[in-house]
Amino acid sequence: MLFTRLSNDFRRWRDYRRTVTELSKLSRRELEDIGIAPYQIEDVARGRFRR
Question: 15 lies in which domain range?
């Protein structure tokens, strides 16, 4: 059970980091087109993967 929880937590963290990385590659214009500002990237990634 502990291993399952740790595994799931790691998977969520990895997905969060992947989302932050991919969004960070976008230009300001591209981010504007999808409705977020550069300073919101981490918040958007957290909201998507929050429990």
Answer: 2-49
Q: What is the mean pLDDT of residues 16-34?
A: 96
Residue 45's CB is within 10 A of a number of other CB atoms, namely 20
pTM, to two decimals: 0.81
Token pair 């960070």: residue: 24
Q: Are 24 and 41 in contact (CB under 8 A)?
A: yes
Number of separate domains in the chain: 1
Residue 36 sits at φ, ψ, to 5 deg, of -130, 155
Q: How far apart are the first and last CA of the chain?
A: 17
Average pLDDT over residues 6-26: 96
